């Protein structure tokens, strides 16, 4: 033991947290796989509540005799959901970096979303319905962020991109389940859809609470040594002796993580992002990209009702297009650079979206649907790459907050999309035209960001700032 540990002890100061964790969990074992799957299942329920309005809002509007009402009123429930996501993201995002951690925040978000979603089924008017959709959006705001950050922080850098894609595949499955559930219950009231999608989420929240481990990175940054070591032992394929050595090898008192960054208070993560010029520049750039991507990503499924196709068939095709987007990201994330991938798919999405606005003749409806599907597929791929890119751009102490801010930018785009879709019923340039120009222009901001492909994750602002100086030079 002494012969093996001596070289490591001599290089103690040179070994970073990322390298230490890589040594422990770099090999992808069954424990990590099962943890990743269980965490990523939250995306299934997230997708269901995100796109359920495609089937429920039209029926609710009919039930309350609001057909022919203003576009703002009929689009109010969907917009309320996205506004709730936006506000919830700002208010809840830093809790995962500070007080609660990734796991507890995931459980809380799923529980709030499921309870308010179930109560939505007893709505008696458009105002109550919209308010409950707002609360559902508020609750689900951090689900995707916590799931992505938690799952990727449980594995080594070699598997980070692939594990992130598992969540996107689960989101696709959730999206695909909606037309199936809606079709099976087509003779029932729209209220049944909320019960079918929300009650299983309550059970899922309980499972996560008891069976999912907290992020070892977050535990380390917070100074929780004992749970940090226990978590590594529970997910690593290495022997307990090796883990015990690494647990004693990491000096929690001497490490730089035990400075102010390791005891960050509520909202201080956002303060750090704003105070550092390089971090603020990155944050603004990825948020602008996110706004453009979100406008198309959330707007396209809501707008398929304006095309001359069967609604169930159109939504199913859109959901199916998420699957190849996830597969493309899965197989290419380790080969292509983040910047070129994101820029290319954003521009392609914009071109095809504008194509939907140009082709107005219903005799070319197959071409219209083709443009719509390619645009949505490209937006889905951009969405996937953007989130993984954001994880790599920011250090552990602010990572969840940064990813959450980007998701809020995506949701902000989604909040505008129902109104644009409503206006687009008479003129597609107000929907598809605006979608295309927005994602194309916003995608250009990727040119302001550094490339992160193949880089290790940083844990403190100082460590990432050092890498930024190297990038600038």
From TrEMBL:
Main location group: membrane
Location(s), subcellular: Membrane
A cellular component annotation (GO) from this entry: membrane
Membrane association type: Multi-pass membrane protein
Transmembrane segments: 72-93, 105-128, 134-151, 163-181, 193-212, 279-299, 311-333, 342-361, 373-394, 406-423, 429-449
Gene name in the database record: LOC107776155
Keywords assigned by UniProt, alphabetized: Membrane, Transmembrane, Transmembrane helix
InterPro entries hit by this protein: MFS_dom, MFS_sugar_transport-like, MFS_trans_sf
UniProt family annotation: Belongs to the major facilitator superfamily. Phosphate:H(+) symporter (TC 2.A.1.9) family.
Reactions accelerated catalytically: phosphate(in) + H(+)(in) = phosphate(out) + H(+)(out)
Any one GO molecular-function label of the UniProt entry: transmembrane transporter activity
Source taxon at top rank: Eukaryota
Coiled-coil features, chain-numbered ranges: none
Species name: Nicotiana tabacum
Classification via PANTHER family: SOLUTE CARRIER FAMILY 22 MEMBER
The Major facilitator superfamily (MFS) profile domain, residue ranges: 24-454
Pfam families, A to Z: Sugar_tr
Protein name: Organic cation/carnitine transporter 3-like
């Amino acid at each position: 033991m002494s012969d093996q540990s001596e070289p490591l002890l001599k290089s103690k100061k040179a070994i970073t947290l990322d390298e230490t964790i890589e040594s422990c969990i770099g090999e992808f074992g069954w424990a990590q796989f099962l943890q990743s799957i269980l965490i990523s299942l939250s995306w299934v329920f997230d997708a269901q509540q995100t796109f359920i309005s495609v089937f429920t809002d039209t029926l609710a509007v009919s039930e309350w005799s609001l057909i022919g009402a203003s576009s703002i009123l009929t689009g109010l429930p969907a917009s309320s959901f996205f506004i709730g996501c936006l506000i919830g993201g700002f208010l809840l995002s830093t809790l995962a970096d500070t007080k609660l951690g990734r796991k507890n925040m995931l459980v809380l978000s799923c529980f709030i979303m499921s309870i308010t979603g179930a109560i939505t089924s007893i709505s008696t008017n458009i105002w109550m319905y919209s308010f409950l959709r707002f609360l559902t959006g508020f609750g689900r705001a951090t689900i995707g962020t916590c799931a992505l950050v938690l799952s990727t922080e449980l594995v080594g850098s070699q598997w980070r991109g692939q594990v992130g894609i598992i969540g996107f595949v689960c989101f696709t499955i959730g999206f695909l389940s909606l037309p199936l559930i809606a079709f099976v219950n087509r003779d029932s009231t729209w209220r049944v859809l909320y019960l079918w999608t929300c009650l299983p989420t309550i059970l899922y929240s309980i499972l996560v609470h008891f069976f999912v481990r907290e992020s070892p990175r977050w535990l380390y940054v917070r100074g929780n040594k004992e749970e940090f070591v226990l978590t590594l032992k529970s997910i690593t394929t290495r022997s307990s002796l090796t883990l015990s050595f690494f647990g004693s090898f990491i000096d929690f008192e001497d490490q730089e993580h035990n400075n102010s960054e390791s005891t960050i208070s509520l909202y201080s993560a956002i303060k750090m992002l704003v105070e550092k010029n390089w971090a603020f520049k990155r944050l603004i750039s990825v948020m602008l990209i996110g706004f453009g991507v979100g406008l198309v990503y959330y707007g396209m499924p809501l707008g398929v009702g304006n095309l001359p196709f069967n609604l169930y068939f159109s939504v199913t095709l859109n959901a199916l297009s998420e699957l190849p987007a996830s597969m493309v990201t899965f197989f290419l994330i380790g080969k292509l650079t983040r910047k070129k991938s994101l820029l290319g798919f954003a521009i392609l999405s914009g071109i095809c979206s504008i194509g939907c606005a140009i082709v107005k003749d219903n005799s070319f409806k197959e071409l219209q649907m083709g443009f719509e599907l390619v645009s949505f597929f490209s937006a889905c791929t951009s969405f996937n790459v953007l989130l993984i890119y954001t994880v790599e751009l920011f250090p552990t102490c602010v990572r969840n907050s940064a990813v959450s801010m980007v998701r809020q930018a995506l949701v902000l785009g989604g909040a505008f999309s129902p109104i644009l879709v409503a206006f687009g019923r008479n003129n597609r340039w107000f929907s598809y035209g605006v979608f295309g120009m927005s994602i194309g222009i916003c995608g250009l901001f990727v040119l302001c960001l550094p490339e992160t492909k193949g880089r290790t994750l940083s844990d403190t602002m100082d460590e990432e700032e050092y890498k930024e100086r190297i990038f600038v030079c």
